[in-house]
């Protein structure tokens, strides 16, 4: 398995344009299309106010487990828009279906942007008329962005049954990041030949230790989805569960999803630093994940990282507010490989070394709970003045 220059897997094409959902002239509408119907899987936000595109696309995938195209816009979330919002999604699929000559049941819709604003269907239709398809155009990775500072994308190649298989992923996300699933909009395409239930299982498994382990601001979006299509054009024998091929593909998805999740955390709104927390020796996997995420999600810890101050007591507080099994007399804390606390007792350490570690743009914190044998990782970012400035003026 290796990371390669970004490209679409065999049989996938995309295109992007400026439809006008955003005032500035940046691209804000794109599509991703497979030359043949593909096995489809999805994981979705659990926010009680799921946006119309989330409701519609989830229903389509749950019913058919197949897709051939995604149409995605930024600048308007089509969220909290009632029956009209659902009707507009249906109209979108009908328009895309007509242009591509596809069954509308093979089309998924995703949106991101301002909540509570009806989709401007004239803009959508005009933008759709401009969209083209290319296997060399990667502007779709930019058209989905909102407050992101850069596109988030990765491509890998692996060998399955002596067939080269490509997996490509791209994502958006800077704010409103606290998944339970989804986190952001993220799209994974592969030319692997996969059983439909296998693809869904792999996606759900690997989400748990990647996208579900990042947080920027503790806010869960109404629009988040991670979607995947596998069109089988690599021509490998179909991948079934409990096989070495299943494990190989799952590893590939893990690399893609973890890489994208870290990119999202690092690009948190106004962020200066990526924070990676490892929790060792937890009572269970669930508790390992929960404690790691509690630490990266703590505003006090995030402010400490931004201020580059060694106030490890905030980490203790974050651990203690979870319901994880802990021994108050057996906690260990390490910054950047330098032990600060062992068996809940502060240690002597080089203050200048810690200052240099905290001045870096990637901070690694390790916590030993001494309660079991499970390990969890989570990613987040610092909390800066810029975060408030960006969100005070956010317009989609």
UniProtKB/TrEMBL annotation:
Subcellular location: Cytoplasm
Listed pathway(s): Amino-acid biosynthesis; L-arginine biosynthesis; N(2)-acetyl-L-ornithine from L-glutamate: step 1/4; Amino-acid biosynthesis; L-arginine biosynthesis; L-ornithine and N-acetyl-L-glutamate from L-glutamate and N(2)-acetyl-L-ornithine (cyclic): step 1/1
Positions bound to substrate: 146, 172, 183, 269, 391
Alphabetically ordered keywords of this record: Acyltransferase, Amino-acid biosynthesis, Arginine biosynthesis, Autocatalytic cleavage, Cytoplasm, Multifunctional enzyme, Transferase
Presence of keyword Nucleus: no
Catalytic activity: N(2)-acetyl-L-ornithine + L-glutamate = N-acetyl-L-glutamate + L-ornithine; L-glutamate + acetyl-CoA = N-acetyl-L-glutamate + CoA + H(+)
Keyword Nucleotide-binding belongs to the record: no
Signal peptide: none
EC number assigned by the record: 2.3.1.35, 2.3.1.1
Pfam families associated with the record: ArgJ
Entry's transmembrane regions: none
Site (Involved in the stabilization of negative charge on the oxyanion by the formation of the oxyanion hole): 112-113
Positions marked as site (Cleavage): 182-183
Active-site residues annotated for this sequence: 183 (nucleophile)
GO biological process: L-arginine biosynthetic process; ornithine biosynthetic process
GO annotations of cellular component type: cytoplasm
A GO molecular function held by the record: L-glutamate N-acetyltransferase activity
The family this protein is said to belong to: Belongs to the ArgJ family.
Subunit structure: Heterotetramer of two alpha and two beta chains.
Function: Catalyzes two activities which are involved in the cyclic version of arginine biosynthesis: the synthesis of N-acetylglutamate from glutamate and acetyl-CoA as the acetyl donor, and of ornithine by transacetylation between N(2)-acetylornithine and glutamate.
Name by which UniProt lists this protein: Arginine biosynthesis bifunctional protein ArgJ
């Amino acid at each position: 398995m290796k990371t390669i220059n970004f490209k679409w897997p065999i049989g996938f094409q995309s295109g992007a344009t400026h439809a006008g959902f955003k005032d500035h002239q940046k691209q804000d509408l794109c599509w991703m299309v497979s030359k043949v119907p593909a096995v489809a899987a999805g994981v979705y936000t659990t926010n009680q106010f799921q946006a119309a595109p989330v409701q519609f696309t989830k229903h389509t995938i749950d019913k058919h487990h197949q897709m051939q195209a995604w149409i995605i816009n930024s600048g308007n979330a089509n969220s909290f828009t009632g029956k009209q919002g659902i009707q507009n999604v249906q109209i979108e699929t009908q328009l895309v279906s007509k242009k591509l000559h596809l069954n509308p049941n093979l089309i998924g819709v995703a949106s991101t942007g301002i909540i509570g604003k009806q989709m401007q269907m004239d803009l959508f239709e005009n933008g759709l008329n401009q969209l083209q398809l290319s296997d060399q155009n990667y502007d779709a990775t930019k058209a989905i962005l909102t407050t992101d500072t850069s596109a988030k994308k990765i491509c890998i190649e692996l060998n399955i049954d002596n067939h080269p298989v490509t997996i490509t992923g791209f994502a958006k996300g800077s704010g409103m990041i606290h998944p339970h699933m989804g986190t952001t909009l993220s799209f994974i395409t592969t030319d692997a030949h996969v059983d439909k239930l296998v693809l869904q299982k792999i996606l759900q498994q690997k989400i748990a230790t990647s996208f579900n382990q990042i947080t920027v601001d503790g806010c869960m979006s109404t629009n988040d989805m991670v979607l995947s299509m596998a069109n089988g054009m690599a021509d490998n024998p179909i991948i079934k569960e409990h096989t070495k091929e299943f494990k190989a593909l799952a590893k590939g998805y893990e690399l893609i999803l973890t890489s994208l999740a870290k990119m999202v955390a690092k690009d948190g709104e106004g962020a200066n630093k990526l924070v990676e927390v490892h929790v060792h020796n937890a009572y269970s996997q669930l508790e390992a994940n929960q404690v790691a995420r509690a630490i990266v999600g703590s505003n006090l810890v995030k402010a400490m990282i931004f201020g580059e101050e060694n106030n490890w007591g905030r980490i203790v507080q974050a651990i203690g507010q979870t319901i994880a099994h802990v021994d108050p007399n057996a906690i260990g804390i390490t910054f950047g490989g330098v032990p600060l606390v062992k068996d809940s007792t502060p240690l002597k350490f080089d203050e200048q070394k810690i200052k240099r570690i905290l001045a870096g743009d990637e901070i690694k914190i390790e916590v030993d709970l001494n309660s079991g044998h499970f390990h969890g990782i989570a990613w987040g970012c610092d909390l800066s003045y810029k975060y408030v400035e960006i969100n005070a003026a956010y317009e989609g």
